[in-house]
Write a structure and sequence with these properties.
The structure is a homodimer of 250-residue chains. Chain A has a single domain, classed as SGNH hydrolase (Rossmann fold), CATH 3.40.50. Helix content of chain A is 47%, strand content 10%. Chain A is built from twelve helices and five strands. In chain A, strands 2-1-3-4-5 form a five-stranded parallel sheet, sandwiched between helices. Mean pLDDT of chain A is 87; it is low at 1-42. At the A-B interface, helix 1, helix 3, helix 4, helix 11 and helix 12 of A face helix 1, helix 3, helix 4, helix 10 and helix 11 of B.
């Protein structure tokens, strides 16, 4: 066990992370040799904000919304991504926030966008939204349509691009897991929401995370019960697939 | 998983996971995380129970103590291990429980051992306990000594071996992260608790997870603030190191 090193090493830590940042600024496009990790982790340094619904929320503490704190990140894919990024790349330059809220649809993100996203000044903004925009038309008398979803989503990203012109966007495909208890034939109409999200991701130059394909392929290995019992909310195994897909895509 | 978890799809699931295994053998690189290779995950199939204090607890739901459910596993190292094991090895044969409770010392594990451990019939039992056995002598007027810790820990494992003769034991080294806000010179005495845990692990033929070394080595990369701000409770990065050390050891 080391003792009393903090005061002296703190400076070294800051110095070395400052030099890492300087190196990154000098060589912004430099790719990291695949022998390190096979992933370009350098371009996710900075402030990362995750936005979305219950899948993103995953039981995070709302009373204590801190960056890089386990209870504030929740027990879903965001917590897994944060742990892996922070654990593998201790640069001291990563600040990861979870601002997902259960039940939310696009218009509800818009209502809290300024304080919950823009004010955090993200370098990377990851959004996963859409399942409730459809689901709540079946179960909550919500009257929004896919046109409303697409229009509101575009407006949200217009606002984002204006307020944060440099932000890197990551858009996750809203998905369902066939065979889950909440999924029935009516969900065929959900494909239109996925198509809208895909169009938007392309037009707004976002990195696209193809979660539907991830779960479709996973069904070859185990049934929906294993990946997301209700077809919407992932199990630990489902969250792991999401986290790996996110990390692979960036 | 021993019974009835996958009611209707059980047969399909077993069949498809067999073909997935065959496919994995044919196409070893395909969409399987690289971290899977080189590890024998098969020998941790069955029921895994994690026991311990707040580090293990990590905000898990006590109202809803289910296996393989994110909120029941918490946002600490157990959640990370569960997600990775379940995500990488969808055999359907793994059932992972978290039964850590914040603040607990060895004698408190003993008080709830029957219902919270033995009754779950674990195949693998992972225990991390000891930091409060010392810490609470500094902060909570607890009067236990290292001799009490070692005696109670042995008694707990004697009970365990009698009730569960086949269980595979995994014992985590209780640890502190030097430079954390709760750590001062008095913690030099904590080394005796770590020594007791190491002796016990050896004598009871447990797999030992050397968490102290893990965190000591991590301090070369970033200070305690990064791995465990108070020196006791890990950050997401600290939890990630713990999870990887656990997975590497088994």
């Amino acid at each position: 066990m080391k003792s009393g090193f903090l005061p002296s090493n703190r400076r070294d830590f800051l110095r070395s992370s400052a030099s890492a940042a300087a190196l990154g600024a000098l060589l912004p496009g430099m790719s990291i040799p695949s022998s390190i990790s096979g992933r370009r982790r350098s371009d996710v340094d900075g402030v990362i904000v995750f936005q979305g619904d219950s899948i993103t929320d995953a039981g995070r503490s709302k009373d204590d919304q801190q960056a890089n704190v386990p209870r504030s990140l929740g027990s879903g894919y965001v917590g897994l991504i944060a742990a892996q990024l922070l654990g593998e790349s201790p640069s001291g330059e990563l600040e990861i926030h979870n601002r997902g809220i259960s039940g939310h649809k696009v218009f509800q993100l818009a209502e809290r966008w300024q304080e919950d996203t823009v004010d955090l000044r993200p370098d990377v903004l990851s959004i996963l939204i859409g399942v409730n925009d459809f689901w709540h038309t079946l179960s909550h008398n919500y009257e929004g349509t896919v046109e409303v979803y697409e229009r509101d989503y575009r407006a949200l990203l217009d606002t984002t691009r204006e307020a944060l012109p440099e932000v890197r966007l990551i858009i996750g495909e809203p998905f369902i897991v066939a065979g889950g208890t909440a999924i029935d034939d009516r969900w065929e109409a959900f494909g239109a929401y996925q198509g809208a999200a895909a169009r938007i991701a392309k037009e707004y130059d976002a990195t696209w995370i193809p979660y539907q394909r991830v779960f479709d392929e996973a069904l070859d290995k185990a049934p929906a019960t294993y990946w997301a019992p209700d077809g919407v909310h992932p199990s630990p195994a489902g969250n792991y697939l999401m986290a790996q897909a996110w990390l692979d895509a960036i």
